[in-house]
Specification:
The complex is a heterodimer of chains A (about 110) and B (about 110). Chain A is globular and about 45 Å long. In chain A, the strands form two sheets. In chain A, strands 2, 4, 5, 9, 10 and 11 form a six-stranded mixed sheet that branches. A five-stranded antiparallel sheet of chain A has the order 1-3-8-7-6, with no helix packed on it. In chain A, about 0% of the residues lie in helices and about 60% in strands. Chain A is built from no helices and eleven strands. With about 110 residues, chain B is mainly beta. Helix content of chain B is about 0%, strand content about 55%. In chain B, the strands form two sheets. In chain B, strands 2, 4, 5, 6, 9, 10 and 11 form a seven-stranded mixed sheet that branches. A four-stranded antiparallel sheet of chain B has the order 1-3-8-7, with no helix packed on it. The termini of chain B are far apart. Classes of the chains: A mainly beta (about 110), B mainly beta (about 110). Chains A and B meet through strand 4, strand 5, strand 9 and strand 10 of A and strand 4, strand 5, strand 9 and strand 10 of B.
Chain lengths: ~110, ~110
């Protein structure tokens, strides 16, 4: 399966600290996407990084991609209590768009 | 754009009844996905369509589940007959090419 697998499963930090979540996958990809889900809500798209990109920024988010290691990381800087949510990665393979998800990382930011 | 639209938002039904979930993808998007989310199994891809054609339905749990996409702006996921273990949140999502995937708000299904 080419689904992304996130780690850690759960992460608890203090407000103001940085949070780093990782995603590993198995097959060659076209792109990798990170999502956020608040409890009981839908998934919100955060950022897309393509296989020919190594790093991407969006506000307090920084995503890296290492295709040689088949891994990606999501860094949230200066975290806020409102960042508390589950974060998922999903990968799209080269030939297909069958975006599959891992179990996610549950981030808790304590005020 | 209104985003991906799903209906109903909540559905409560009794075991054995037919359930139909509906999705309208974002205009111009050519791929549509149906996912199911539960605490136990996480977010599972059930089926996806490219240009209205089902590409991979290997995630559909049983023959009780079926999905159609009669045109580029509408898709349905049907469960017949429904069972209590089908209770979950069902999400629809759409993509244009190999770009960002956008999700609908989901349908929370409860089968009694």
């Amino acid at each position: 399966s080419q689904q992304g697998e996130e780690d850690p499963q759960a992460l608890s930090i203090q407000e103001g600290e940085n949070a780093t979540m990782n995603c590993s996958y198995k097959t060659s990809i076209n792109n990798l996407q990170w999502y956020r889900q608040n409890s009981g809500r839908g998934l919100v798209h955060l950022i897309l990084i393509r296989s020919n990109e190594r790093e991407k920024h969006s506000g307090r988010l920084r995503v890296t991609l290492d295709t040689s290691k088949k891994s990606s990381s999501l860094l949230i800087t200066a975290s806020r209590a409102a960042d508390t949510a589950s974060y998922f990665c999903a990968t799209g393979t080269i030939n297909n768009n069958d975006m599959r998800f891992g179990a996610g990382t549950r981030l808790t930011v304590k005020p | 754009d209104a985003g991906v639209i799903q209906s109903p938002r909540h559905e409560v039904t009794e075991m054995g009844q037919e359930v139909t979930l509906r999705c309208k993808p974002i205009s111009g998007h050519n791929s549509l996905f149906w996912y199911r989310q539960t605490m136990m199994r996480g977010l599972e891809l059930l089926i996806y369509f490219n240009n209205n054609v089902p590409i991979d339905d290997s995630g559909m749990p049983e023959d009780r589940f079926s999905a159609k996409m009669p045109n580029a702006s509408f898709s349905t996921l049907k469960i017949q007959p429904s069972e209590p273990r089908d209770s979950a949140v069902y999400f629809c999502a759409s993509i244009r090419g190999f770009n960002e995937q956008f999700f609908g708000p989901g349908t929370r299904l409860t089968v009694l």
